[in-house]
Amino acid sequence: MNCAIIGRYLGNLLLLEAAFLVPPAAISASLGEEAARRGILLTVGILVVLGLLLRRAGQRSGSTFYAKEGFVLVALAWVVMSFLGSLPFYFSGEIPSLVDCFFETVSGFTTTGASILTDVEAMSKGLLFWRSFTHWLGGMGMLVFLLAVAPGQKGQGFTLHLMRAESPGPSVGKLVPKMRQTAKILYLLYVGLTIICVLFLLAGGMPLFDSLCTAFGTAGTGGFGIKNDSMASYSIYLQGVCTVFMALFGVNFSVYYLLFRNWRAALKDEEVRLYFAIMLSVSAVIACNIYPQMGSVGMSIHEATFHTSSIMTTTGFAISNFDLWPELSRALLLVLMIAGACAGSTGGGVKTIRLLLIFKNMKAGFRKLLHPNSVETVKLNGRPVSRSVLEGINTYMSAYCLIAIASLLVVSLDNFSLVTNLSAVLSCFNNIGPGLDIVGPIHNYSTYSDLSKIVLSLDMLLGRLEIFPMLILLRPATYRRQA
């Protein structure tokens, strides 16, 4: 394995992270938040020194860059950047536990939104901005950003292997012939939609700082709020804006590009149609189910659509304590945690496309049982799906179930209720944030032990990177010559 080239690109990412910490430092400096400013600037110094050292060490790395290097670089980058990105919270003293700092920052970068903070509003504005900004950076992916802005990188297959390792979904395709150009298009769409979201929030009277932080959480489908009640104290208009934009950021970004090329084909995309069908049908069922509690048709629809959009897109914003809803509604939200958004979006979860292909493959299997000599082909949008993609989905789901079970057993050592532990694991693994019971929308994860927080942090990373890059990073055989 070419460790030098991994170090060089990791160094570039650390320098990039240092640059992204400058705006939070400027905010803290302008507001006289001295402890936060010092903590951020000290972290910037560490990032710059480490970044330059890694770049220098990898100057003569050659150009060998294969799939293994891609997976290891992506997984290692997310772990290292999360740890170093947590240092401003620790150095400032605003989060005294290093494990808590790591948990909070991993939750930010992976767009999970699970928090250990008991009083969000007590945090300095500079660190609140950084906390929300990590959502936006992690939403599309830091390495995808590097591909979009950096000049031509050395290494045949560099762009393809990084996109394949970091992009969510069972397969990665190109929008245009060059993968680097595809990354640029994706980020332009991401930035454009984020700006439009900010403008709609400003139009509703939300302050600029709040608008930026809320848009970061909405665009990255992360859900870190800057108020203790998440989104509850904002107007119905502002909540409605977030409902719509959470749903939009849960759509595969390739579909937005396709809208400009062939809008009819974009509207016929099977994954997107199933995504909105699930969201609307679940919203309708929940609205009917919670109507006796709400006492108003309008508020029932508003609450149901907001939280369905929030949970299915794995954003995690809340406008009320949905843990008090009837059991059917709570169960539906738990199922939505697993389902997740579309592949190629900023949302987490298993992804709608995997559910669709599992269902199609199951139908083909049934037909094969009835007609053993028939040739069954699974198709998506009229095109055959390769056997390797279907096998990859089966492998992913097997690993998903095993990791979820193992995580549940470990966090159960804290002796909380099954509902608490199960929803905590599903919420972190699927990058959602709030769960049920003790980790519900009006609570947080602060009561868990350090061991459970580390396990849940790993779950967030495994979920965001779709399991395999993290498993390859932790696999001893990866570092042997014959591996």
From TrEMBL:
The protein's name in its UniProt record: Trk system potassium uptake protein TrkH
GO MF annotations, alphabetized: metal ion binding; potassium:chloride symporter activity
Keyword Cell inner membrane: yes
GO cellular component: plasma membrane
Span of the signal peptide: none
Topology in membrane: Multi-pass membrane protein
Organism: Bittarella massiliensis
Pfam families reported for this sequence: TrkH (PF02386)
Compartments, as annotated in UniProt: Cell inner membrane
Annotated TM spans: 39-58, 70-91, 133-150, 185-209, 236-260, 272-292, 331-359
Classification via InterPro entries: Cat_transpt (IPR003445), TrkH (IPR004772)
Key word Cell inner membrane present: yes
Positions annotated to bind K(+): T111, T112, G222, T314, T315, N431
Recorded superkingdom: Bacteria
Family, as annotated: Belongs to the TrkH potassium transport family.
Keyword terms: Cell inner membrane, Cell membrane, Ion transport, Membrane, Metal-binding, Potassium, Potassium transport, Transmembrane, Transmembrane helix, Transport
PANTHER family xref list: TRK SYSTEM POTASSIUM UPTAKE PROTEIN TRKG-RELATED
